[in-house]
Design goal:
The complex is a heterodimer of chains A (about 190) and B (about 300). Chain A has about 190 residues and is an alpha/beta fold. Chain A is built from three helices and eight strands. In chain A, strands 3-2-4-5-6 form a five-stranded parallel β-sheet. Chain B is an alpha/beta fold. Chain B is built from eleven helices and nine strands. In chain B, the strands form two sheets. Chain B has a five-stranded parallel β-sheet, with helices on both faces. In chain B, strand 3, helix 4 and strand 4 form a beta-alpha-beta unit. The two termini of chain B are about 15 Å apart. The chains are: A alpha/beta (about 190), B alpha/beta (about 300). At the A-B interface, loops of A face helix 1 and helix 11 of B.
């Protein structure tokens, strides 16, 4: 008998809901940051950068606001280097400005242990001392944090188990539709 | 692939093309960091590296030390001139004593070919070869190819002439391996006495006329005459060598194209390169030095990540 693999998969946000969330993020940002003259957005590489791109695009559709934004890679600032089985591959950091005295909004897709965000805040300091830092995430995995880090802007809070994985799929990255799923991690057995 | 296939960098010969690409891509990221106001990352903060130099070095040692410090590693330096080696201690004893002080990586330069290979069989730390006699100098070859990639976009398909003292040069051998693995065509050029007898077996073109070599190539990597390694006379005089193999502006003007000039340093000005070439816009000698730090950061970072 061939072994049948049953993959538990639960939809968290569908294409319409993601689009609504992105719009809500934009309006919240406009409310809190006025004309963005002292605010910059940083997408965390690799997946937060995709979320940031959606926000920038929507922001232009809504108000034709031009924002200062960049992509931040925190690979060399992670605290799990040499503790992982395979080192993470670094991505490009593209920040053509200093964040000295600016309000920074860090953008990521999923907030889990909080370690990536801690590393990102460490990496960010190389570009100056920000006046204030906020965190924006599409998905907040509740009760899983290793660090005292909470989002200021959150798409959806979800309850997940250690054995589960939150995957974010984008249509322009080859998936059928924009969607966010909770799936079971593949067992090593 | 996110990790190197080897836990030591002993020579380019042991690296796969995928390893070299991974080193280059990682070095791209480090080069970006080196151009920031704060040029430091905390990746290797729990690692101690010993720079063990049994042979003189300025550039390589400084470059490694800077790379280590930019990665936040703890660094200890050892120079054989002021050490117990002079009192008769063996290589393994010296290094084991250093390792007993809980050192994780050893960057080593030695005048004997194969010294780092020998050491890698006897100690547990990661070893980086910073030049072993006339054998290999892998980080120099990596930074040379990285600089060609930066200047010309790619190494594959490019024609590179290595000109000068090939016989005594570890840079030449590592460069030949590295360039060939990346798909470049390689030519060596120099007087008959300074070319190894069977060098053509490595799949390189051999030329004795420097003008023809320059006319053929896209990049000329000019090497220093290593007088300190020459026990006998290989050519009548430096003046004569310079007349036949020295590269000057007049020679470059006679070419029907522009080529890139590289030199691993230290330059003997007026011997292999004239100042009007070494300081010209064709030369990327200082970019090579700058890239050296990024390449060495990438090598140390990736080796530290190999389990």
């Amino acid at each position: 008998m061939p072994q049948i693999l049953i993959m538990q998969k639960r939809l968290v946000l569908d294409q319409t809901q993601i689009s609504l969330t992105i719009s809500r993020f934009c309006h919240q940002l406009i409310e809190n940051h006025d004309d963005f003259d002292n605010t910059v957005l940083l997408g965390l590489q690799p997946r937060g950068a995709l979320v940031l791109d959606k926000i920038i695009q929507r922001m232009q559709e809504i108000q034709n606001i031009s924002l200062e934004y960049g992509y931040l890679d925190a690979t060399f600032h992670r605290d799990d280097f040499r503790r992982r089985d395979l080192p993470l591959r670094a991505n490009e950091t593209k920040i053509d400005f200093l964040i000295e005295n600016k309000k920074v909004v860090l953008v990521d897709d999923v907030l889990y242990k909080g370690r990536s965000v801690r590393a990102a805040m460490d990496a960010m300091i190389a570009f100056g001392r920000p006046q204030k830092v906020e965190l924006m995430v599409l998905i907040d995995r509740k009760f899983t944090r290793d660090f005292p880090i909470q989002p200021d802007y959150c798409g959806r809070q979800v309850n997940t188990l250690e054995s589960q994985y939150v995957s974010v799929e984008w249509q322009d990255k080859g998936f059928e539709k924009d969607a966010i799923w909770i799936t079971e991690k593949e067992s090593n057995e | 692939m996110e990790q190197l296939s080897t836990r030591h960098l002993l020579g380019i010969k042991d690296l796969s093309p995928a390893d070299i690409q991974l080193i280059f891509e990682t070095a791209d990221n480090f080069k970006d960091i080196l151009n920031r106001p704060i040029k430091k990352v905390p990746s290797l903060r729990d690692i101690t590296i010993a720079n063990v130099f049994f042979e003189n070095s300025t550039r390589t040692k400084l470059s490694f030390e800077l790379a280590e410090k930019r990665l936040s590693a703890d660094v200890v330096n050892f120079a054989s001139a002021s050490s117990s080696v002079k009192k008769g201690e063996t290589l393994i004893d010296t290094v084991n004593n250093i390792l007993a002080m809980k050192v994780d990586m050893v960057v080593m330069r030695h005048s004997s070919p194969g010294a780092p290979h020998f050491l890698s069989k006897h100690i547990s730390a990661n070893i980086v070869n910073a030049g072993d006699g006339t054998h290999e100098h892998p980080t120099q070859a990596l930074l040379d190819s990285f600089s060609i990639r930066e200047k010309l976009g790619d190494v594959a398909g490019k024609k590179v002439a290595i000109i000068g003292d090939i016989l005594h040069s570890r840079v030449a051998l590592s460069n030949i391996f590295c360039l060939q693995k990346l798909g470049a065509e390689v030519m060596v050029c120099g007087p008959v006495t300074l070319l190894p007898k069977y060098i053509a077996d490595l799949g390189v073109k051999v030329e004795h006329d420097v003008f023809k070599a320059l006319q053929w190539c896209d990049v000329a990597n000019v090497l220093r005459i290593q007088l300190e390694r020459q026990q006998i006379k290989y050519f009548p005089s430096l003046r004569e060598y310079s007349l036949f193999y020295g590269i000057n502006r007049e020679l470059l003007n006679r070419l029907d194209k522009e080529i890139v000039i590289m030199h691993p340093g230290p330059i003997n000005r007026g011997v292999e390169l004239n100042s009007d070439v070494a300081d010209s816009e064709h030369a990327i000698i200082l970019q090579q030095v700058e890239n050296g730090v990024a390449i060495r950061m990438a090598v140390l970072y990736l080796l530290a990540g190999v389990k």
